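Hi Y.,

Following your request, here is the sequence exactly as I used it, all 370 residues.
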Amino acid sequence: MRSVTVSEKPLPDNIEKPEAFEKTAVQTIIDLVETLRNPVSGCPWDLKQTHQSLRKYLLEESYETLEAIDNLPSQDVFDQCSRDPGTQAEIASAYGHLKEELGDVLLQVLLHSQIAKDNGQFSFETVCAGLAEKMIRRHPHVFSSKAQMSGSSLSADHVAENWAKIKQQEKRAKQNQSTQSPQEIPNSPFRSIMDEIGSAQPGLSQAYAVSKKAVSVGFKWPNFDSLWACVMSEFDEFRLEAEQLHQLENQPDPAQDDAQGLENPKALQKGALQKEKEALKEKLEEEFGDILFATVNLAREFDISPEIALSRATRKFKTRFAEMERAIAEKNMIDQSKEDSQEKQMAAMKQIDFETWDQYWREAKTHTAK
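Below is the corresponding structure, written out as tokens. Let me know if you'd prefer a different format.
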């Protein structure tokens, strides 16, 4: 692979080029981030950042990268259309967007690495070195002396299984380095395989990881029908609780006379009713969590990422809703260039009945279908 230098795309003449721009692109961005964090001449915003303050940016950039990936053509479409001049520009634009978003994610890695370096912990170079060592360890079928004999005979499933085994060996080795073995420590705490799953992950991702871990040791439904029955049963349980809560909320509050205070039987009755509602709402939240976890298991059964699937569904809804807004604005002749256009738009939408909304939705689905 050739060395890419930033000089291939020079900075504008009115911007002073740092000395680092004579280096490779990778070393250049490392040096630029270090310059941004320079205590004397760096950027105030970058100097202010910590690992904790950057968490939200890493998450945002990761999701934006996922969106850019979702906007790419499938490999089949790419193979068919990459030679078509009419679609080459569109494909190039989609890949250009992905390149930009990957750069933004890389910037977050560089910033965290530089902060760690400033704190005397590690650097981006040692992050890369550690990653290289790990990839070599976990790909013995490629990098070991026997790779030429065994690598091509392994399936992707076997490789994934070996990866998991090697990962477990690495974790046990780290535990042995940091503490004595459990046999040497009286009353040592029990270690669950679930302890390996980080609690900082988004809820759906964490549930997916927990489900995969449980299945990996044999805790799973015997067939699809039993899994589907479990999912449906969670919806049934939720509906029972929801109907009870709905009945309570539709009950009129006990009428109170002029007498006030806890001694008033009607006041006590009202308080008891409120507590019952709160208890049902808490139970409803629990049952809804069971629905989500069950559907995550359904996603895991078909190797579907629930986090990505939900993000795609949300973007699809936003696109269709925007199409409905456009149609409503056209029908009501709302001039989008006017300052009060959004206010008029919202007022018009609030007057629409369910049947009309349903018709707009059907039309939006047709117009936005890929």
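Residues 1-12, 181-186 have pLDDT under 50 and may be disordered.

Thanks again,
Q.
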